[in-house]
Amino acid sequence: MRRVYHRVEKIAGNVITLRADGVQYGELAEVASRAGTSLAQVIRLDGETVSLQVFAGTRGVATDAGVRFLGHLMQAPFSDALLGRVFTGSARPRDKGPALSDNMINIGGPSVNPAKRIIPRNMVRTGIPMIDVFNTLVESQKLPIFARAGEPYNALLARIALQAEVDVILLGGMGLKHDDYLTFRDTLDESGALSRSVMFVHTAADPVVECLLVPDISLAVAEQFALQGKRVLVLLTDMTNFADAMKEIAITMEQVPSNRGYPGDLYSQLAARYEKAVDFDTAGSITILAATTMPGDDVTHPVPDNTGYITEGQFYLRNGRIEPFGSLSRLKQQVNGDTRADHRTIMNTMIQLYAGYKETLEKRSMGFRMSEWDDKLIKYGDRFEKEMMDLSVNIPLERALDLGWEILADCFEPMETGIPSKLLDQFWPKSKVKE
Fold first, then answer.
1. Where does 4-73 sit in CATH, by number?
2. Three-point CA angle 300, 303, 306, nearest 5°
3. What CATH number belongs to 81-333?
4. Which of 38, 61, 127, 178 makes an SS bond possible with 33, Cβ 3.0 to 4.6 Å?
5. pTM for the full model?
6. Which of 124, 129, 120 is nearest to 327 (CA)?
7. Structural domain boundaries of the chain?
């Protein structure tokens, strides 16, 4: 029987401090008070001085509360029974289903040994042309979606969850509005995708500490599915809320703040989660897409700034579209040479012409006379934005490549595109070839 401590020396916000021995960082404890019993987690050790974050808050917790350490870190259940279920950030059922307690696994463990990893080699198809064609997602990749507040990043993640060709979807929501949570759940349920999904959701009304647990629980469960040979896609939203939760706790702990008040180990904390992405040499894979909001649309904000050093590219979501300039998948060259012979050519040609379209728009706005070439670029740009960039477009990669050729043929002569004759002979739409 583990000892119960009855002397709380300090209560600050949702953090209590007491003196105890034989305690490890991250260990769970039960706090018994007049308000009932609540879980807490060790978030700081200073000799025998132990600070714990109380999940349910410290309302009703007095200095004589009983604290009993459980001797283990935060754990989550793992089994196929998780599929189709929705849980809180601390793995309690949110969907009114039965609680699961079998096969408990520790969360927050180390990333996978590099010797067990293989070079990424498989494409993750999403049905979204701006991803599949222009910035291909690769198994075991870690990519953020940078967006300012108000952009439909959650809607984009829901689309990807529906359409991605993977075995299991892990959705980790942090600080979600209740409407966003319901949208995720209902979208997946109505499409039948919930049966291959597990959701760990922390809403804005839930305890702050649960926000910190969401990525770790999601990735721990994802790792177990991957070890079974499953292709797992982990969708996290919003990592800025995760960082803000870290900042809130750091301020409560009176830690010396770093840039804009965030803790000095922000980079390490983010990297510890993103580095869970892996393609096992003898099992499955974990791919991570994480929405990261940019306050004030500022990419130099500490959260997106640090994220950019960790991840393998990024998607920029602007005006409801994935922006082709700035968005980058650094691993796309690992797979887009093996999809179809024209993939890289279509990707490069269409982006170059779209850049010309943007320059033409600037010329027109300044009152310059439009040339015949400018008119072609404007026609092309309008079609490209409507038929390729719009996030409602849902077509397979091969159809998207064919559509790219159709748009080019409708707007330009073959020689105006700069595409090699060999590819023109093979892929240029025959109906557009002049006699």
1. 2.40.10.170
2. 75
3. 3.40.50.12240
4. 61
5. 0.90
6. 129
7. 4-73, 81-333, 343-432
